[in-house]
Amino acid sequence: MNKKKTIYTLEYPIRCSPSILYEFLSTPVGLQEWFADKVDQRDHTFYFSWNGSTDTAEVVEQLENDYIIYRWDHQTDDEFFEFRIEQSPITNETILRITDFAEKNEIKDQEQLWNTQISDLKHRIGS
Question: Closest Cα to residue 24, out of 96, 75, 81, 72?
Fold first, then answer.
């Protein structure tokens, strides 16, 4: 039986416009720049490849320049990972908010992984 995973959220300031950031979060070309070695898309299905092995995710919901929600094939219906783009009302900077699920004891490792990937993303964007 699957243990219920814990939801967690991370926030990263990204120096670029929401529309540019959205391209990096929602298109195979953009995602391939920082998220996976290779990304293919058929309809609402994305195929992410790392070191020759492929994971499949469905786009559950999206709103252009605002958010996109994916669900891995191996996740339960109430698990997902979400990229949400927000703008700080004070500084007007673009904030990428990532919501994901992990086992409680794996959250720290997952955060490290996201930190690494987001630093790649920032590098690609020139942020």
Answer: 96
Predicted local confidence at residue 125, as pLDDT: 94
Q: What value does the mean pLDDT take over residues 110-115?
A: 97
Q: Is the pTM of this model over 0.70?
A: yes
d(CA 118, CA 99): 13
6-125, CATH topology level: Alpha-D-Glucose-1,6-Bisphosphate; Chain A, domain 4 (3.30.530)
Radius of gyration over every alpha carbon of the chain, rounded to an integer in angstroms:
14
CA distance 93 to 95: 6
- Residue pointed to by tokens 């995710």: 57
Q: Which residue has the tokens 């299905």?
A: 45
Other Cβ atoms closer than 10 A to 107: 16
